[in-house]
TrEMBL record:
One example GO MF annotation: short-chain fatty acyl-CoA dehydrogenase activity
Cofactor(s) this protein requires: FAD
Domain of life: Bacteria
Family of this protein: Belongs to the acyl-CoA dehydrogenase family.
Lineage of the species this protein comes from: Bacteria, Bacillati, Actinomycetota, Actinomycetes, Mycobacteriales
Location of the Acyl-CoA dehydrogenase/oxidase C-terminal domain: 182-299
Protein name, as recorded: Acyl-CoA dehydrogenase domain-containing protein
Length: 330
């Protein structure tokens, strides 16, 4: 499913690149040459001048082909911080982390494979940032359940001179990080739906296709409805974020809705997709696990399902009866 507002020809090109070159060792360089690594950067800074809509389509295409590279962390999370402080963000793979008071950060995506790490930390009542080479920080490797690097990073902030960044940028970074994972979850759920439909149509049991059994039809219908709900919530939040340049007053609520819907949808989709596939769906040889396990991994990052449910409940309660409708329907 193409992201609304994205040119179909561009979406097809993105999909074709991953389909043909997704396993290439020089994929990052190829994407950089096509202007896709810094897709949302301004043309003056060496980017392609695209929006988050095109970036969402690129991320979705990568998920559909099970390509694991730090596209989102580089283009959508790390580079905007550098843009804000006037530092050029080149094509060297980057990630970003928010350090605690000790100069540490847990589960930093792709730190052990990035060439540079954009670190942010509190300095009194403000925040500062620095673009660090990977060998300037201490990295303890880790990974999530699909093998993507989620590393511990330690930085001696006392020896660094950071550049001041607006606190608003840090707040936006939190929302953008959550939105990135919601986009990826939706793409994984859509792919699980496609595989389930293909399997039900092609496999036979008791002399007829699985798709003819009412129980299987109900399972696939549940997959489709949950995936559609998650995508609708995510696209709604993304639309408001893009229109308001990540400053819309209701954006916190909409991102919480997207993450809550995507997280709960993952439970239903993963369960039903594996039931539809039966034993073959649990094997490493079948591709289903590349998407179901990814959805489960990503829904726990940048806030768990419980965290986003609680955030959603708190905001709805705080709005009260008089303001709740305006929060839901801005």
């Amino acid at each position: 499913m193409t992201t609304p507002g994205v040119d179909a020809a561009l979406a097809d090109m993105m999909d074709a690149v991953f389909a043909e070159h997704g396993r290439d060792t020089d994929l990052w360089g190829r994407l950089d040459g096509l202007g896709l690594v810094r897709l949302t950067g301004s043309e003056d800074s060496g980017g392609s001048g695209a929006s988050w809509r095109e970036a969402a389509e690129l991320l979705s295409a990568a998920v559909r082909h099970a390509v694991r590279i730090p596209l989102a962390e580089h283009d959508l999370l790390a580079c905007p911080v550098l843009d804000a402080v006037g530092v050029l963000c080149d094509g060297a793979p980057r990630t970003v982390c928010l350090l605690d008071g000790r100069g540490h950060a847990d589960a930093v995506p792709w730190a052990s494979q990035a060439e540079r790490i954009v670190a942010l930390w509190a300095d009194g009542d403000a925040y500062v940032a620095a673009d660090l080479a990977a060998d300037e920080v201490r990295i303890t490797p880790g990974s999530n359940m699909i093998g993507e690097p989620r590393d511990h990073v330690a930085v001696d902030t006392a020896s660094l001179r950071g550049v001041a960044v607006p606190s608003e940028l840090v707040d936006q970074l939190r929302l953008k990080s959550a939105m990135v994972r919601s986009i990826q979850i939706c793409a994984a759920l859509d792919r699980a739906l496609e595989l389930s439909i293909e399997h039900a149509r092609s496999r036979e049991q008791f002399g007829r296709p699985l798709a003819k059994f009412q129980a299987v039809q109900h399972q696939i219908a549940d997959i489709a409805s949950e995936a559609a709900l998650a995508r609708s919530a995510t696209e709604s939040a993304l639309s408001v974020a893009v229109a308001g340049d990540w400053r819309a007053p209701q954006l916190d609520f909409l991102v919480a809705v997207a993450r809550s819907c995507a997280g709960h949808a993952a439970s239903v989709v993963v369960r039903n997709a594996h039931q539809v596939h039966g034993a073959i769906g649990t094997t490493r040889e079948h591709r289903l696990h590349e998407f179901t396990r990814a959805a489960l991994a990503w829904r726990s990052e940048y806030g768990s399902v419980r965290y986003w449910d609680a955030r959603l409940t708190d905001m709805a309660t705080a709005a009260g009866a008089n303001e709740l409708w305006g929060l839901i329907c801005p």
